[in-house]
Amino acid sequence: MPMSSEPRIILATKNQGKLAELRQLLADVVPAEQIVDLSGFSVPDIVEDGVSFAENSALKATITAKATGLPVIADDSGLCVDVLGGAPGIFSARWSGTHGADRENYELLLAQLSDVKAEHRGAEFRCVATLATPEGATTAGVGVVRGAITTAPQGDGGFGYDPVFIPDEGQHLAGTPRSFAEYTAAEKNAISHRARALAELKDAVVATLSS
Ligand SMILES: O=c1nc[nH]c2c1ncn2[C@H]1C[C@H](O)[C@@H](COP(=O)(O)OP(=O)(O)OP(=O)(O)O)O1
Ligand SMILES: [Mg+2]
Question: Which family does it belong to (predicted)?
Fold first, then answer.
């Protein structure tokens, strides 16, 4: 087997939407065949009991790197709504009470904002991506994208809260503002919180893989 097909780095996420985006975002610095997901590795269940995206991202990355012996990238992210004081924030994945129930999560958010006027519906996606080595070194990157919450879901691309988030950037000049679920993958990857967090990590990823 040629060296280049050996797994070199693990993406420590159980979220398939994130996984697809992370793979695309790393394509320019790591050959696709060197990037693997968690399947095939035995990693203990990780309790995300940190109080910030940074803490949870570091937890996921360091525990996975230690358990597998490979460098790991983890992503902790969520939607922070201005009028809710930054909620759902780190609780985004289980806002409705059921972890990963995307539709229930965003429907609850829309219901909570039902009386909030358009000009007060500002929000941002935040992401902290952490690179951890098996030796315990960590590097973190942070990314933010601003936008507003819709009054009803729009579009069926993307994942998570994408149908209810209208980014400020990347809109067409004419026409109705589009949600992230109506952006192409390339359009989302050009401005997303995840893309910005990974951009800050790329030098460290290259250095780790070449050492
Ligand atoms: O680009 C995004 N577009 C839409 N929604 C998003 C995005 N980025 C994060 N989100 C939402 C999904 C989930 O409700 C929460 C992340 O929670 P978070 O714990 O980081 O991820 P997770 O539990 O889904 O997977 P894992 O921990 O295995 O990486 O924020
Ligand atoms: Mg999670």
Answer: Belongs to the HAM1 NTPase family.
* CATH code where residue 35 lies: 3.90.950.10
Distance 144 CA to ligand 1 centre (A): 14
Q: pLDDT per residue over 79-132, tens digit each?
A: 999 999 999 999 999 999 999 999 999 999 999 999 999 999 999 999 999 999
Q: Give the phi and the psi of residue 194 in degrees, each rounded to 5.
A: -70, -45
Predicted TM-score (pTM) of this structure = 0.97
Q: What's the DSSP call for residue 28?
A: T
CB-proximal residues (5 Å) to ion ligand 2 = 93
Closest CA to 12 of 1, 44, 24, 3: 44
Q: Active site includes 49?
A: no
Q: What percent of the chain has pLDDT over 90?
A: 94
CA of 144 to the centre of ligand 2 (A): 18
